[in-house]
């Protein structure tokens, strides 16, 4: 049994915790939080025998093999650093950290200690996204020429963590990482990035991004905390086009159109979510003795943090000043 400790008790901790608990060869053995009462409540819900009122206690639990870091990104480095120092494998929610400097420190610590670390970018483990990636890699799709993707929705409650600069708020880190992540997965690092957008409440409230590549390929991406975006994606190659239903990063339906107009529909099997894929990836890589994932390499996580930090620096506030 692969034994997991859950760091934090919010919605994503609960969701992934239930996915772990449902796997026949995994179990949640402990939950940690700054609130012991919340840790006990989630531990009871997930069938975990131990609950702790601090993350330091959680990582010291001898019955924990892997720590899933589900705190706001402002606390990712803090918790991951404790877990790595304790020799625990780490699955850390996306984005890997709140800043590039934090992400670089986290990766350096894990590599120096020889401890497994992976960003929980569940989009990369969605079976339909993986199918699309294989089609592109095999040449079946042709050369990718354009990508369009969006993800955003209004968040009217200004006390929500997404509007809180101290918690790593803003559209880009939490939502924009998905459109950017799709472009990164299929096209790599761009030659040029153009960003338009606006600040509100001290965070990036919205951003439109154009990525341009050396071979002329491009990606048009959109994210927002103030507008209801479509959440779909379209990938166009020289031989095929793929349309991904919303939300594209967790899509359950993809339609591929070939050069003759023939349409093929791919539908996700029930239960085969990206969450399942990412926790099984941790299991499989640990069984091999690996310290990184080839599906979600740490160098890709660092490259994404560079893009996010660059994009955030280009969003302007209403007076025209840089963010």
Structural summary, described in words:
This protein is α/β, with parallel strands linked by helices and 323 residues long. Helix content is 35%, strand content 26%. The chain folds into 2 domains: 2-120, NAD(P)-binding Rossmann-like Domain (Rossmann fold), CATH 3.40.50; 124-270 and 305-314, Dihydrodipicolinate Reductase, domain 2, CATH 3.30.360.10. The longest helix is centred in the middle third of the chain and has 17 residues, at 171-187. It has helices spanning 11-22, 36-46, 55-60, 76-85, 100-113, 127-138, 171-187, 274-288, 298-314, and strands at residues 2-7, 26-32, 50-52, 66-69, 89-93, 117-120, 144-152, 192-200, 203-212, 218-224, 233-237, 241-244, 253-257, 263-267. A hairpin with a 5-residue loop joins strand 9 and strand 10 (218-224).
Question: Helices, strands, pairings?
Answer:
Blueprint: E1 2-7, H1 11-22, E2 26-32, H2 36-46, E3 50-52, H3 55-60, E4 66-69, H4 76-85, E5 89-93, H5 100-113, E6 117-120, H6 127-138, E7 144-152, H7 171-187, E8 192-200, E9 203-212, E10 218-224, E11 233-237, E12 241-244, E13 253-257, E14 263-267, H8 274-288, H9 298-314
Parallel strand pairs: 1-2, 1-4, 2-3, 4-5, 5-6, 7-10
Antiparallel strand pairs: 7-11, 8-9, 9-10, 11-12, 12-13, 13-14
Helix pairs in contact: 4-5, 5-9, 7-9
